Amino acid sequence: QAPDNIRAISPYQPGKPISELAREMALAERDIVKLASNENPLGMSPAARDAASAALVEVARYPDGNGFALKAALSSRLGVGAERIVLGNGSNDVLELAARALLAPGRTAVYSQYGFAVYALATRAAGATGIEVGARDYGHDLDAMGGAIRPDTRVLFIANPNNPTGTFIDGDVIESFVARVPQDVLVVLDEAYTEYLEPARRYDSIAWTARYPNLLVTRTFSKAYGLAGLRVGYGIGHPAVIDLLNRVRQPFNVGSVSLAAAEAALGDEEFLARSAELNDRGMRQLTEAFARLGLEWIPSAGNFVALRVGDAAAVNLGLLRRGVIVRPIGGYGMPEWLRVSVGLPEENARFIEALSPALQGRT
Ligand code: PMP
Fold it and tell me: Which among 57, 143, 184, 305 is most buried, taking Cβ atoms within 10 Å?
């Protein structure tokens, strides 16, 4: 019998795989559009593909467990010493490491009502108690989150932009919040979608980590870099925090093909710019359609957008029948909403085309 904290967990629900829908609906896989997991519709950069292929010849050997080359590349790109960097099997892994290193029974973690699902999962898995704080306009209510911190709180999670709502908080607001958080609470600032921010909204959270030893910034190669299937993320923080995370990290948590691809992807700025530009256009395409259909949506700073459709389970079924996979977010306490990832122009068009009949409940 598992302990209570494990039995209380409902497993993370990923987007429906294309192969599964193809089987269920007797559709060809190529006729299915999947806009459910905030992936990069361009795929990966050609430089990353070449590096991944080249790295395949070495897979009989264990990867470099310290990720020396990728950390060196991140170090020069971000201007921080390698001792301030931890690598993860996706940024989920880094979130988990933070929870495992700092949480335990009798300790608490603070996160927002619509905050990314893994915060609650990682907190419970560590045997700690989650303090879920009500949202403001679907986004993080930082004042309320600060007020929820208790003497036994050790971790506070913020996603900026947040998933699944896409909400964004200005950098100076986040920084002044971090400055107010007690030193014995680690602020985990999850920036999985930061590469999609418009230039005017960018802020230098990496520089803050030198000023606030209780700040850990997490980022990923899964989204704008297009490497979701290879599972690479990283965290930047004070060397003492990084040291703690390394104590609970698996020895070879990032594979060698993944390390090589991530390093190459980091150098391909042209691909990153193209991905962000495609996302901007796709976001306009989607939100213009929502406006035409009279639908409410939450303005998003990420590569996805949440829209209110009423009976989301029924609309989702209508979309699935038309070969379109999006993400119902009832599990986040938003039963009237669907989250759709920004795809290629033709994928967005397929979704928009399927949406009207799905909304009307036509079979
Ligand atoms: N944080 C947020 C806010 C996310 O949306 C995601 C992906 N769904 C992650 C972290 C984790 O992504 P990965 O493990 O692929 O880096």
Answer: 305
- Ligand 1 mean position to 91 CA, how many Å? 6
CATH number of the domain within which 180 lies: 3.40.640.10
User: Which of 38, 44, 91, 111 best tests ligand 1's pocket when mutated (most atoms within 8 Å of CB)?
Assistant: 91
* 244 and 303 co-located in one domain: no
| 269/259 Cα distance (integer angstroms) | 17
The total domain count for the chain is 2
pLDDT at 16: 83
Rg (CA), the chain: 20
ipTM reported for the complex, 2 dp? 0.99
Question: Ligand 1: which of 97, 112, 223, 300 to mutate, most ligand atoms within 8 Å of CB?
Answer: 223
20 and 117 part of one domain: no
Same domain, 98 and 202: yes
pLDDT tens-digit series, residues 76-95: 999 999 999 999 999 999 99
Residue 68: domain span: 47-267
Q: Per-residue pLDDT tens for 5-60?
A: 888 888 887 778 888 888 888 888 888 999 999 999 999 999 999 999 999 999 99
Do 85 and 195 have their domain in common? Answer: yes
CA distance 257 to 239: 27
Altogether, the residues listed in the chain come to a count of: 363
- DSSP letter string over 121-171? HHHHHTT-EEEEE--BTTB--HHHHHHH--TTEEEEEEESS-TTT-----H
- Name the residue with the closest Cα to ligand 1, atom 2: 192
Nearest atom in ligand 1 to 159's CA: 3
**Which residue, of 212, 232, 267, is where some domain finishes?**
267
Binding pocket residue ranges, ligand 1, CB within 6 Å: 38, 90-92, 116, 159, 163, 190, 192, 220, 222, 228, 233
**C-alpha 162 – ligand 1 centre gap (Å):** 10
Strands 108-112 and 153-159: parallel
User: Using one digit for the tens of pLDDT, what is the confidence trace for 225-248?
Assistant: 999 999 999 999 999 999 999 999
Amino acid 8: pLDDT:
85
Which range has the worst mean pLDDT, 17-26, 115-124, 215-224, 286-295? 17-26
- Judgement on whether residues 225 and 242 belong to the same structural domain of the protein: yes
